């Protein structure tokens, strides 16, 4: 028996049939809606100068009402500040330092200032970009020398395979047997046949490239020196058999192992320190992925700190006059098309001006609050948060966050991210506060001046900071020490320092008992084995 269907729409709720009927209700509510102009301004504010340039280029290519403004101006294009007085009249006057002042600040013509970092960086960044594009990579440099050498076709093919296997540090990490197998079946060879070609590649520039470990790399460089070089013979012995023991036993221990006086060992170690354990590191030193362009420049003139925006922060783009005139002469769909693009162009020009104004206000505030940081360095960095800057400028905290995101400033201390001007704070016994950056800088100085035979532990560092009025817990000190990539105290113990002063590139000579590889730690924090000394010259 087939059940019948009810023709009326009903809903059964707990046994009761309730009819479902459509109805209209009127209710009032408040809702925040972002207009297209505000959305565009927010999006442009968080872009870096490079991203802004790409965004403007895309807009110019798609909008016929936009065009680039030549440096000398033109009759066909109105600049952004003169584009449409009716729509831009409500935009307040912006104070902008002349570009000549910014250029003079970079060249240190206004107020010479000692360069504290970022050597070779320029304001517009074209020099580094051109050099990075023009520089050959390590592989290109080695292949160029390979083809200039008198190699047979067979050895040339072997040399190409060897060079392809060399890493960015200049080392050949690949096993020769695996390389020989990779050449089959095109080339039937053995690992023994690869050695003569490899030895010739190791004589290429840079000297020692293609070495399979640090010992071989240093030996190649030592053999290229004159035989009458002081300490050369002993340095060869140390590089061949004692290099891994040097961090453990120090120079006196190595001298005892080799049966020579500590003075001769010191001369040999000094010679080793003058060599380069990473011959290929200097190639591609400005990778394009890490390249940034400053959005503003900060300099000091007549004792006062000045701020100027980079030219890229105000792109030279304006409205096309010819297309504006066409709006009055056309009608219908053509007129609607041009009016729509004209409105978008006006919004874009106003958003660019708003971005530049906000960025300039934020940077000026940062310079006022952190002038001590620019003057004396990280130890003078005051605690500063986004909320404090937003309150001073009467802006929203998210606006300040977008303004500093991905932005960089060219300062006398190098090209720094704007976020470097912010720091969290820790209350001091004097009632003030100290920034985390200043505390880290103090820890770095304490470790640099410690007794190499009795390094300071985290607890002793915390006690020292407490005596200076900064109550920091031991765990906080350990966290800051790890952030600075400073080894623990038991890894910093060094012996024989009276006769063997440490060089910045030489691994610390630690007291024996533990794995010496733990003290061979590169500057970027990656773990390195005995064959991976730091990038600095030994």
Separation of the first and last Cα atoms: 96 Å
Helix fraction, binned, reads: 40-55%
Q: What is the C-alpha radius of gyration, as a whole number of Å?
A: 33 Å
Strand order of the largest sheet: 6-5-8-9
Strand content: 5-15%
Largest pleated sheet: 4 strands, mixed
Uncertain residue segments: 4-9, 81-134, 495-538
> How many DSSP H or I helices?
21
Oligomeric state of the chains? single chain
* SSE-based structural type: alpha+beta
From the spread of the alpha carbons, the general shape counts as extended
Mean pLDDT: 75
Kindly state the number of beta strands: 11
What does this structure look like?
- The chain is built from 21 helices and eleven strands.
- The longest helix is centred in the middle third of the chain and has 37 residues, at about 335-370.
- The strands form four sheets. The protein has a four-stranded mixed beta sheet, sandwiched between helices. A three-stranded antiparallel beta sheet has the order 3-7-4. Strands 1-2 form a two-stranded antiparallel ribbon.
- The protein is extended and about 95 Å long.
- The protein is about 45% helix and about 10% strand.
- Residues about 5-10, about 80-135 and about 495-538 have low confidence and may be disordered.
- The protein is an alpha+beta fold and about 550 residues long.
């Amino acid at each position: 028996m087939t059940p019948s269907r009810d023709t009326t729409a009903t809903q059964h709720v707990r046994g009761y049939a309730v009819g479902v009927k459509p109805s209209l209700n009127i209710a009032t509510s408040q809702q925040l809606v972002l207009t297209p102009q505000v959305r565009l301004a927010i999006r442009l504010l968080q872009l870096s100068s490079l991203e802004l340039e790409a965004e403007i280029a895309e807009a110019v290519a798609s909008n016929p009402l936009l065009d680039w403004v030549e440096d000398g101006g033109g009759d066909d294009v109105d600049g952004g500040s003169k584009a449409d007085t009716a729509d831009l009249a409500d935009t307040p006057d912006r104070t902008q330092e002349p570009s000549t002042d910014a250029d003079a600040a970079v060249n240190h013509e206004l107020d010479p200032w000692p360069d504290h970092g970022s050597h070779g960086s320029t304001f517009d960044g074209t020099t580094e970009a051109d050099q990075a594009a023009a520089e050959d990579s390590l592989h290109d440099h080695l292949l160029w020398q390979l083809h200039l050498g008198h190699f047979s076709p067979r050895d040339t093919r072997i040399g190409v395979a060897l060079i392809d296997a060399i890493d960015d540090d200049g080392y050949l990490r690949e096993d020769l047997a695996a390389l020989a197998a990779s050449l089959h079946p095109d080339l039937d060879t053995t690992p023994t046949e690869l050695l003569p070609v490899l030895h010739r590649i190791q004589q290429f520039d840079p000297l020692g490239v293609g070495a399979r470990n640090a010992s071989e790399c240093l030996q190649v460089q030592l053999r290229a020196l004159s035989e009458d070089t002081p300490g050369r013979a002993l340095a060869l012995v140390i590089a061949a058999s004692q290099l891994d023991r040097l961090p453990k036993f120090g120079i006196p221990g190595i001298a005892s192992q080799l049966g020579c006086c500590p003075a001769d060992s010191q001369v040999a170690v000094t010679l080793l320190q003058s060599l380069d354990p990473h011959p290929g590191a200097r190639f591609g030193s400005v990778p394009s992925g890490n390249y940034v362009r400053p959005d503003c420049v900060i300099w000091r003139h007549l004792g006062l700190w000045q701020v100027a925006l980079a030219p890229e922060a105000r792109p030279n783009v304006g409205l096309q006059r010819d297309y504006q005139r066409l709006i009055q002469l056309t009608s219908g769909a053509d007129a609607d098309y041009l009016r729509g693009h004209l409105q978008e162009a006006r919004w874009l020009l106003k958003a660019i001006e708003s971005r530049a104004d906000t960025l300039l206000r934020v940077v000026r505030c940062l310079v006022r609050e952190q002038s001590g940081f620019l003057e004396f360095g990280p130890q003078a960095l005051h605690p500063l948060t986004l909320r404090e800057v937003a309150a001073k400028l009467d802006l929203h905290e998210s606006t300040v966050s977008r303004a500093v995101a991905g932005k960089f400033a060219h300062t006398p201390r190098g090209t720094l991210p704007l976020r470097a001007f912010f720091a969290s704070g820790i209350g001091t016994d004097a009632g003030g506060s100290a920034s985390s950056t200043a505390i880290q800088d103090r820890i770095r100085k304490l470790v640099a001046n410690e007794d190499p035979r009795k390094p300071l532990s985290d607890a002793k560092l915390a006690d020292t900071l407490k005596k200076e009025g900064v109550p920091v817990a031991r765990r906080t000190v350990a966290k800051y020490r790890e952030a600075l990539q400073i080894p623990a105290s038991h890894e910093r113990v060094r012996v024989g320092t009276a006769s063997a002063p440490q060089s910045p590139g030489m691994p610390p000579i630690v007291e024996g008992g533990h794995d010496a590889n733990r003290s061979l730690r590169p500057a970027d924090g990656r773990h390195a084995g005995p064959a991976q000394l730091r990038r600095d010259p030994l």
